[in-house]
Every structure is written in C-alpha cells, then in structure tokens.
Amino acid sequence: MKIPGSSTLSDILPHAQKHGYGVAAFSARYLACIRPVMEAAQELQSPVIVEISQRELGWFQLTPMQFRNELAKVVRELNVTVPFCLHLDHSWELNVIQDAIDAGFNSVMIDASSRPFTENVALTRIVVDMAHRAGVSVEAELGKLTTTDKMESENDEEMYTDPEEAQHFVELTGCDALAVSIGTAHGVYPVKNPKIDFDRLRAIRQRVGDLPIVLHGGSGLPPETVHTAMQIPEGGTTKMNIATDLEVALLAAMGGLERMTSAELDALDPELRAKGRQAVKDTAIDKIRNFVRSENRAWENTH
C-alpha cells in the first residue's frame, strides 16, 4: 500500500526539469536516517526522494516493507506536506523489484546496464509492464557507472551513454526516467572535480525529448558541476542521487564508527545516535539548499 501523499518520479521531476533545479534522491540506508532527511525537506519546503538499493537492503539487512513502514511512520509523525517519493534504487532481480512494488514503493529502478543493449531493453520492458500496472514509475540505466577508485581509466568513454542508443532505448522500453553515464561515479571522488561530459549530456537531452534524466554519483561533486548539469537547455538532470555523503556524515558524527546494520545502529546509545542523525539532517539541508537548489519549491511542485 502506497504511503498517503506520496508521489512518483513522473509527478515530481517534470517541474524541476522545467525550472532548472534538481530533486535530491537520498539513499537513507539506515532506518534512523529517514527522519532527519524528511525533517530537512519539510523545514526547507523542498520536494524529496527517499531511496534504498537492492545492494543496500542486503548491506543493512532490511526489507522493502521495513523501509516503507519507517518512512510512513515518519511522514505521519512529522505531518509531512512536501512532495516525496519512495524509490527503489539500483536493482536487478525481478523478485526484489516486485517486493518493493508490493510494499508500496512509488518508483523502482531496473539496472541492467551491465548487460548487452538488447538484454537491457528486454528486462527494462518487463519491469515497466510490472510497475505501470501498479501505478509505479520506472527508472532505467544506459551506460555504465564506475566506482571512484576506478576513475580516469583509458576506456572511460566506452562506458558512457551513447545519445543515439539512449533515444532507441527510451522508445523501446517506455521507461519514465533514464540514468546516464557522463563521467560521475559511485563513492567519494579522489579528485576535486571529476571530468563531466556536458556535451554528451546535451546530446542525450536532444535525443530523449522531455524524459527526466538522472545523475548518479552525486556525493562529493562540486555544486557548480551539479548546477551546470541541471541547467542544460530544454532541461538537464533532475534526479540527483546522494548516498555516500549521508553515511559518511552519520558515522563521522558518532566518532568514526564503521558501517553496521540498521538494527545495530538502532541499538547504540540514544545520545550517540542523536549526534549522527543531526549530522545527516545538516548534510541533507546543505544538499537541498546549495546542491540541487530545491528549497521552497514544494508548493510550486504541487501546483
């Protein structure tokens, strides 16, 4: 059952695309991080996407239903009025995606980008059919994102999204948003400002019409890089994924603890957890205000 008041990507992203801002997609990872993210969005009157990936469900030992129920509880207790979307990030197994749909997620991502083009199309089409029957939006990916410890390789551009392929992919799959590879990576960047192929992004935009474009690997990117990506003519990237920054802030505020399961975090001393949650909220506020520039866009987004 979907959370009352929740939205799909198709509800939230078009306004951001038209007006040149982004919507932060925060991978909360730990259940305890959902509340500070939603507090930040509500206080800044910003639309927001709360997400978790298939791999993160395993890392933090959570189910889609547990994640959905915690967000529903927070939304109810905070009386959240801003547009929000519950999204399943990078996932590749149909049973996990179906579990998220059944749990009440508003949006799911099928990541078959490691497969050949025809297989990516076929699998994405299956997920689009599954999801759309339930009123759920679908993000897909074309091109391959590396991790930050493998950047600057000789064949980087072979992994980038081809604009002509992107057009065919969107036409063949009917996906609602497309994650592209233009030089970002997962993790924290070892260089101050990674090389982003904005010309490629402009070419992709020209080929995919008004389809929302997603930029993964947002943690650690300089704000000016993100602003340029958001303001491409006819609409740049609108969904900006932020994951590593939140977890780094959380663990650092609690004295540099190592990654743990969500349940292990919940069992820590309440005062210690409060410090971690405050760091997550501060980080989310900074990203909303200075990174995606979505502060005070909530009312506009619903009208």
UniProtKB/TrEMBL annotation:
GO terms for molecular function: aldehyde-lyase activity; zinc ion binding. It comes from the Bacteria. The active site is at residue 89. SUPFAM superfamilies: Aldolase. Binds 2 Zn(2+) ions per subunit. One is catalytic and the other provides a structural contribution. Zn(2+) 1 binds at residues 90, 186, 216. This is Fructose-bisphosphate aldolase. It comes from Deinococcus cellulosilyticus (strain DSM 18568 / NBRC 106333 / KACC 11606 / 5516J-15).
